[in-house]
Amino acid sequence: MEISPSLAIRTQSVCRHYQMGEALVRAVDGISIDIRAGEFVALLGASGSGKSSLLNLIAGLDRPTSGTVIVHGNNLAALSREELAKYRLRTVGMVFQSFNLIPSMSLLENVELPLRFAEVDRRERSALAIQSLERVGLSGRLSHRPMELSGGEQQRASLARALINRPKLLLADEPTGNLDSRTGTEIMDLIRSFNHSLGMTVLMVTHEQVLAEKYAGRMLHLADGRLLDDVPNISSAQAPAARGKAQ
Amino acid sequence: MKLYDVTDLAVRNLRESIFRNSLTTIGISVGVASLVAMLSLGIGLQQLASQRLQKSGLFDTVVVTSRRDLRNFREQREDGPLPAESPALDEPARLKIAQLPGVVEAYPDIRFITEFRFDDKPHLTMAGGVPFSARNNNDAFDGMQGRFFSSDASPEVILQKSFAEELLGIKPKPGTDDTNIAELAKSILGKELTMRYSERTASPSSTGSADSAAYSVISRQQVLKIVGVTDLDPDSMRGAARARVFLPLKLAQDLHVIQTGIRDTSPSDTPTYTSLSVRVADPNQVPAVEDAIKKIGFSAFSIVDATRSMRQFFAVLDGFLAIFGSLALAVASIGIVNTLVMAILERRREIGIMKALGASDADVRGLFFAEAGAMGLVGGAVGVTLGWVIGRLINFGTNIYLERQHFPPAQVWSVPLWLVLGAIAFSIVVSLLSGLYPAARAARLDPVQALRYE
Lengths: 247, 454
Prior knowledge:
A: 247 residues, alpha/beta, six-stranded mixed β-sheet, four-stranded antiparallel β-sheet, 10 strands, globular, B: 454 residues, alpha+beta, 2 domains
């Protein structure tokens, strides 16, 4: 199968089914989508619609029951556990609703963590982590522990950590879910600026239609594990860029 | 992940639950301490027994006699030249034997019964020559009062305790051995003893005839200074013919005292010996040296190395002690498994985060292994120290008991370097084995499930 270099993500009839006792849960049920490099895409849907499950499949955290997930030419279903770990390390940056910073580590250490897995030299990784924290406006909080920071600051640190390995793909799972609207906007502005400045593809899970309309260039609506709707968002600042790339 | 990062993260994680991890580490320490204490006692006792036996000269000495001596009944069964063809056991033969591989030294056995005068009273007893090397390799002189000979030919004597008692007219109560050797030595050391003996000199008529048996006997006396009193018998190997007065070997040789049993009486410039004592470097080499001596044409006799069976016994004993010692370590290893499994449950989410950020199964496994290994290393090091202290205390207590029983002090405990390193290595290996299951479990953790965990 020929994959265009501009294509970041392609899923083909991807399914993720779970057995819950007697019942078969179809978390993702035959979704096929193409996302171009540099796009800002929002995955929308109610709780249990399968948006996080689809995100986990694209993140390489989970494996599809059937179908294929191809990210930047990597067929994730065919990768070994070791190769999947490398894929998560080098290709993907993740931001979570609950920030997922390690409480026993300082912000600097948290942001450095992916570089440890990438076996980057100590001095170099410290410099990179400081740079990354500066980019999200946290240069004064290097030695603070996550619990000493506000939700917005924690999410910014989480964003700095996601970007430290310069991934091609930023996956955000409800990044503003635990934040007030003003802080949420700050975070979304940051994500959009990285999407623009670094040209990285952003796939964001959210259930906030307003947020998606404001930031995403394209909105995918999911329900019961299926893709209901794939809508380009003309009102978003992202939309012209996305359209430009599509042409 | 690099080794430094694995270690750094492991130490950080251990510090996070310092109380629980300390308790687990103390468990390992107690296990290692019991192992070290048990083995150090086994090794100490083995060394003590082995040194005693080796220093006794029983197993590293070969006694060489000439086959010309018809009293030697063993020669009938041995290969080699007939008695009449056997070479003379003289100085060239001694030098030849001394140069055989494995031989440390070969010296003549010189012993004779003669009269000693002390306070103008005569005392008849057996005197023996002691080689100068005995100061280091014969433990009979270890606890000696006074000192060893100042040289190989100095006119000095060391007395056996019973002879010193005889000279001073002290009669120990029958069945007791309570005479204080230090008191005894104080009253006799530095005093002089006159030895009266018969010197054998070559007869003028025999000059020019090597085969001549003609010699003269001249009565002489030699004043000797008493420099030492020994409690143990330095001459224990030769059993019945025990000497009670010891002279430096060279001095005893130079005196040319007539010895009982000497048949070949060559002129004094080429001395011929009744027998030689050949000291071998290692008891294991005794049979080879014995064979080599027989090939030259002499009779050789040694006692079968009993240290070998003793070593076997101690190997079994050490094995049992190690098993008992290891039981505590086995219990401690269950503690490690428990601690690490608890850590997985507590850090489930953290493991999920690390995997989402790109940690491989090997990274997570390595982290848990490093934590187990670090607990093993610290536990092993503390345990060895603890075991060393316990061993010292046991040794200290034993020596207090020995002193009360009027026994010389003994080192019943020994912690060689291999035991220190071995115990720490064993502790790390046991800890790593204990970490196998938790590490594998942590590595297999599903990141999606782990991230969902609150």
